[in-house]
Amino acid sequence: MALDSGQSRIKRAVLLSAGQGRRLLPLTAERPKCAIEFFGRTVVEWQIDALFDAGFEAVTVVLGYGADRVEGLLERRYGGRGVRTIYNPFYRLTDNLATCWIAREAMGDDFLLVNGDTLFEPRLAQALVDAVEAPITLTVDHKGAYDSDDMKVVTDEQGRPQRIGKQLPVAEVSAESIGMIAFSGVGPELFRQAVERFMRSDDALSLWYLSVVDELAGLSHVGAWSVGDRLWSEMDDHDDLADVEKVIAAIAEAPHKAGSEA
Q1: What was the pLDDT predicted at 257?
Q2: DSSP conformation class of 64
Q3: Kind plus residue range of the DSSP H or E element containing 124
Q4: What is the DSSP-derived secondary structure letter of residue 37?
Q5: Residues 6 or more apart in contact with residue 60 via CB below 8 angstroms
Q6: Radius of gyration, alpha carbons of the chain
């Protein structure tokens, strides 16, 4: 049973799942990060199930490393019902700005952009969509201290993002991005245009898409929404695995179990 989606406009999502996840070797020696299994389902399945339970109708998964393997499991599980894939042939050479450029055709209308290693419960995605007010809404969490691996966020007095990046002064940081962003209204067009422009720079292949969002935040196009007590976790390296397993276990046991057995 999907959660009540109310009047939400955003029904489509794009998952960025092209990377291998070398920091998780040897788990990713023969499969990409998104194909690691927890409780009988892969990471990408947990993500898609959560999105469908939250009322989304279409999910585009951008693949690279191990694409054939992931396409096979998605076909077996969903049979093309609401799920399509895009292949990034340059995944070994680029970071995720280029992955967004490859997937720009899937970003024509309102959509949710999700990192391929962000796990979340359905009510988080639905609450975000229901809370969207700005053209671009950055999903953030707050904690007592931030480390070098966090995608840090500096906000103004009204809580609006002003800067986003890993190298920001810790003393100025008030939140971290969890790897989920909603684009609505003029947001998709603003993002696509900026991605096109950034891709013309000399260092484009090494840039994150949050470099684009950082610039747009400085132009007052970006809002922030806090996850509150809703469950999420990221899966960057081996230190994250225990927390990911804990979050997925809680999602699986919740009344709104993610996904039906397709």
Answers
A1: 46
A2: B
A3: helix 122-131
A4: E
A5: 12, 13, 14, 15, 83, 84, 85, 86, 103, 106
A6: 17
Q: Residue for token digits 């970003």?
A: 107
Q: What's at 255, amino acid-wise?
A: P
The Cα 82–Cα 105 span in angstroms is 16
Please name each of the domains of the chain with its CATH number: 12-253 (3.90.550.10)
The residues pairing with 180 across neighbouring beta strands, listed in sequence order, are: 114
On the question of pLDDT at 148 being above 90, the answer is no
pTM: 0.91
Mean pLDDT of 2-15: 70
Which tokens go with 86? 């895009």
Query: Strand ranges (DSSP E) for the chain?
Result: 12-17, 37-38, 41-42, 58-63, 83-87, 111-115, 118-120, 136-141, 152-155, 161-165, 175-183, 222-226, 232-234
CA distances from 118 to 47, 231, 235, 236 (A): 8, 11, 7, 9
From the DSSP assignment, how many helices (H) and strands (E) are in the chain? 7, 13
